[in-house]
Amino acid sequence: MRPDLDISVRHEPEETVVALAGEIDIHTVSRLVTTVEESLEHGSSRLLLDMGKVTFCDSQGLGTLVVLSRTATRARSSLVLTNVGPFLDRLLEVTGLRHSFTIRAAQ
């Protein structure tokens, strides 16, 4: 069975929230990129990626998160990771990528 990633988008006055549930990997990153790029077109100054239900993230997923952060910066927005679970937090720490992201504590 192929892994999946459920994505939902909620536009709020100050930010856009993209909630993710499932796996961020080579099979799902293209959908994530498309969703984030479309969300940035709304002109929000902040894009929150809610990672609370992410169960897996491979190297392709990590690389994509870095690229999306740069994409947000070019769009005059900021990408913020929120609800980062222990698995993903540890992965970001071990890979040295934790300092590359703004991470908001669980809400």
Automatic annotation (TrEMBL):
Source superkingdom: Bacteria
Domain STAS as annotated: residue spans: 5-107
Pfam family, one: STAS
GO molecular function: anti-sigma factor antagonist activity
PANTHER family: ANTI-SIGMA FACTOR ANTAGONIST TM_1081-RELATED (PTHR33495:SF2), ANTI-SIGMA FACTOR ANTAGONIST TM_1081-RELATED-RELATED (PTHR33495)
Stated family: Belongs to the anti-sigma-factor antagonist family.
Record's protein name: Anti-sigma factor antagonist
